[in-house]
């Protein structure tokens, strides 16, 4: 957002603003890159945890003799917790800061993942997975707000798209490591325990990453904002720069009413943008989460060995890294909307095709890999696009609420999908229905939301 001369002190109207300095710095790995790496590791654990639901569903179905409706709660409890965490932590991050919110999310996740590994009851397991999800659910909105606000404008599309590269790394690591741990030792608790210590490590590393300067500006914390900006200028090798910080409204205290107030602000800012963002997240991520969590069970039911089902799902996630790389290259050339629309629709109907071909072994692996590649073209563009639709004071909560909608869809959707839709119309036609929902969301985006390629990030709504 550009500021009028009246927003700068007298005699300084020609100086750039602090956010303009940040968004026009050159990219350096010792500056913006370290934020990308640490934020990305948090995102990696989010992927690991969601994929872990797909591992736990067949393992605990066998261990505790669960019916499909009961097993669905393994993923549902975790993802509803993530939904709650996404909008709670997104709102908290807009009030207390990206840095503090990020550290708290990983600590809660680590403690309750450990608790889940120590229980022997499906009810308590679901409770602990809910709380762990609540913690980790805040990682994605906080990560994208933090990384986006540190990243120079001309690199932002590629960097935010590349952030999603951490997702297939985490998902693939979960699939491959879980297959090895279970095949070698046979204990269902080991895949849970395998991710606790690395997550705690990221918690401590995160303490050394500074707060977002754009957040500090928006909060009116001028001295802290100048310290971060000046340090960034020094780290990228530029001489000290003069700049102004625009006046901002006094920050509002964080209260219990902040959640309702913040979502109301999103709809007041733009009901069209918010409706489109929620529709895209709901439909695209519903298809992806059903595939990620239930593909191992679908493959096992189709006759695949357990370890092979886990490895195949890991392969689906791993090939997604190539999709992220291609998306990062394409996103600035094609624009966000066109690339997102084409890949979202294509990936949805690839999943329906895969479901129709599960009894043809030679077709399964190519279709699994094709889906994994195309869906990871769509998802990073989705995250980049929605994170750019809102100004700084709403960016964390805007992305967080959209992410929460996707987690609700992914939590409740499989209960309906597995319990009612699949028995009624079959697996393939159930995915056709979800694919049609994606088409509707893409059409809404085409007519109701703006293109954001090259757009300067705003600090306030004004």
TrEMBL record:
Subcellular locations according to the entry:
Cell membrane
One Pfam entry name: MFS_1
Gene3D superfamilies xrefs? MFS general substrate transporter like domains
State the superkingdom: Bacteria
Q: Does the keyword Transport apply?
A: yes
Instruction: Look up and give the membrane topology term.
Output: Multi-pass membrane protein
Q: What is its main location?
A: membrane
Residues spanning the membrane: 71-89, 101-118, 124-147, 159-182, 188-209, 275-295, 307-331, 338-358, 364-386, 398-421, 427-447
Task: Identify one Gene Ontology CC term for this UniProt entry.
Answer: plasma membrane
Give the Major facilitator superfamily (MFS) profile domain ranges: 35-453
User: Which N-terminal residues, if any, form the signal peptide?
Assistant: none
Name by which UniProt lists this protein: MFS transporter, putative metabolite:H+ symporter
Q: Which organism is it from?
A: Micrococcus terreus
């Amino acid at each position: 957002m550009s500021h009028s001369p009246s927003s700068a002190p007298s005699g300084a109207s020609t100086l750039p603003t602090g956010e303009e300095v940040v968004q026009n710095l050159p990219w350096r790995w010792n500056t913006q890159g370290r934020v990308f790496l640490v934020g990305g590791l948090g995102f990696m654990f989010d992927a690991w945890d969601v994929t872990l639901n797909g591992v736990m569903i067949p393992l605990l179905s066998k261990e505790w003799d669960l019916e499909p409706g009961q097993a669905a709660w393994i993923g549902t409890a975790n993802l509803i917790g993530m939904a709650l965490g996404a909008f709670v932590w997104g709102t908290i991050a807009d009030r207390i800061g990206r840095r503090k919110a990020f550290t708290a999310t990983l600590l809660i996740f680590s403690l309750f993942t450990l608790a889940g590994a120590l229980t022997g009851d499906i009810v308590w397991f679901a409770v602990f997975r809910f709380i762990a999800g609540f913690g980790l659910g805040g990682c994605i909105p906080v990560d994208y707000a933090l990384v986006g606000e540190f990243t120079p404008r001309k690199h932002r599309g590629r960097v935010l798209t590349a952030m999603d590269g951490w997702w297939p790394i985490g998902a693939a690591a979960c699939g491959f490591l879980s297959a090895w741990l279970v095949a070698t030792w046979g204990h269902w608790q080991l895949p849970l325990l395998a991710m606790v210590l690395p997550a705690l490590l990221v918690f401590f590393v995160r303490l050394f990453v500074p707060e977002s300067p754009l957040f500090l500006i928006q909060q009116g914390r001028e001295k802290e904002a100048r310290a971060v900006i000046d340090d960034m200028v020094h780290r990228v090798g530029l001489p000290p720069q003069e700049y102004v910080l625009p006046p901002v409204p006094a920050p509002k205290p964080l209260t219990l009413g902040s959640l309702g107030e913040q979502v109301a602000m999103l709809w007041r800012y733009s009901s069209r943008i918010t409706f489109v963002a929620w529709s895209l997240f709901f439909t695209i991520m519903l298809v992806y989460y059903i595939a990620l969590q239930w593909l191992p069970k679908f493959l096992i039911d189709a006759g695949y060995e357990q370890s092979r089902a886990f490895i195949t799902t890991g392969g689906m996630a791993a090939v997604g890294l190539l999709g992220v790389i291609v998306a990062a290259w394409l996103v600035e050339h094609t624009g966000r909307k066109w690339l997102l629309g084409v890949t979202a629709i294509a990936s949805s109907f690839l999943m329906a095709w895969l479901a129709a071909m599960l009894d043809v072994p030679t077709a399964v692996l190519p279709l699994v890999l094709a889906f994994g590649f195309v869906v990871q073209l769509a998802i990073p563009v989705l995250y980049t696009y929605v994170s750019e639709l809102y100004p700084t004071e709403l960016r964390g909560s805007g992305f967080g609420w959209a992410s929460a909608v996707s987690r609700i869809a992914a939590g409740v959707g499989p209960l309906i999908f597995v319990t009612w839709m699949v028995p009624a119309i079959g697996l393939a036609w159930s995915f056709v229905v979800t694919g049609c929902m994606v088409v509707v969301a893409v059409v809404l985006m085409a007519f109701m939301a703006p293109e954001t390629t090259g757009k300067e990030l705003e600090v306030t709504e004004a």
